[in-house]
From TrEMBL:
Annotated protein name in UniProt: EamA family transporter
Pfam families (alphabetical): EamA (PF00892)
Similarity field: Belongs to the EamA transporter family.
Compartments (UniProt record): Membrane
Transmembrane segments: 28-47, 59-79, 85-105, 112-128, 134-155, 167-186, 198-220, 227-247, 253-271
Organism of derivation: Maribrevibacterium harenarium
Membrane topology type: Multi-pass membrane protein
Lineage of origin: Bacteria, Pseudomonadati, Pseudomonadota, Gammaproteobacteria, Oceanospirillales
Length: 292
């Protein structure tokens, strides 16, 4: 059961592109970002009643980066390139983090990490072959969204918070408030969602954001961050699967090979022998608790 809950967040996050493609194509990306962030933040505030505390300015900065700008880039990618491609590009997160830590922070990567970087880079090159006529604005947006996660990850190493739910709540609220004037300036007055579009908005805001983040917090507590990292490959895998079966997306043989390379690089980084031992140990521990 532990592993089921740990798998839910990346699966839900991977459904973002399908939700947009199935329900929200007539709305605009900036306002969809607003509809996703603010209701989720307000709902978490009502349920958990957490307040920002002394480091409110940190939450504002993280809200702008981790929610405001990230959601904009993510939604622009969702509207301009196939979800299967966008989801696979999001799997370059460990590789981007490795490069930033190496080039800027001077943390020398291991041989395993270097191999993963080369495999992942090869996959991205296959996926973005110019012959496939992808929208480069969407590609840049997808990679930028992942880069923002890298920046936020490094910031949060220094700005640790014991109240993760509270931090998530106020990041969503501050990010949503940042998005309001940006969306109005860039896209004009909002178009209210129709009844046919409400399932997509509800899925993105309630399940994909509020519920998924709560599950993420509890997954980290139940299986640990290293174990949870192994399951992140389910994010692009979900995006690719939903894109093919529900949005009729078609990938060439070379693009499929690129997807395999990127997912393989993610597994090389995350699935070390030590992680496998911990995974088996945690699973056996869970079975003992169930049987006792």
């Amino acid at each position: 059961m532990y592993f089921f809950f740990a798998m839910l967040p990346p699966i839900l996050w991977g459904s973002t592109y399908a939700a947009v493609g199935l329900f929200l194509t007539d709305l605009t990306p900036f306002w969809v970002s607003v509809y996703r962030a603010l209701p989720a933040g307000i709902l978490l505030l009502i349920i958990f009643r957490r307040w920002p505390g002394a480091h409110i300015w940190r939450l504002m900065v993280l809200g702008v980066l981790n929610i405001g700008l990230f959601f904009i880039c993510l939604m622009v990618a969702a509207y301009r390139i196939p979800g299967s491609v966008a989801g696979t590009l999001s799997a370059t997160l460990p590789l981007q983090l490795l490069l930033v830590q190496w080039l800027i922070l001077g943390r020398k990567p291991s041989s395993r990490s270097l191999i993963a970087a080369l495999v992942g880079l090869t996959g991205v090159m296959l996926l973005l072959d110019p012959r496939f006529d992808l929208d480069m604005v969407g590609v840049v947006a997808a990679l930028s969204a992942t880069s923002l996660v890298v920046v936020v990850t490094l910031l949060m190493e220094h700005w640790r918070s014991d109240d993760i739910i509270g931090a998530a709540t106020w990041q969503l609220i501050f990010g949503g408030l940042f998005l309001l004037p940006v969306a109005y300036f860039w896209e004009g007055a909002p178009t209210l969602p129709s009844l046919a579009q409400l399932p997509g908005i509800a899925w993105l805001s309630l399940m994909n954001t509020a519920f998924a983040y709560v599950m993420f917090v509890y997954a980290i507590k139940m299986v640990g961050p290293n174990m949870f990292g192994i399951f992140t490959f389910l994010n692009p895998l979900t995006a690719v699967t939903l894109g093919i079966f529900f949005l009729d997306e078609v990938l060439s043989v070379w693009q499929w090979l690129g997807v395999i390379f990127v997912l393989s690089s993610l597994l090389i980084v995350k699935l070390s022998p030590g992680a496998m031992r911990n995974l088996i140990s945690t699973k056996l521990k869970g079975k003992k608790q169930v049987n006792s």
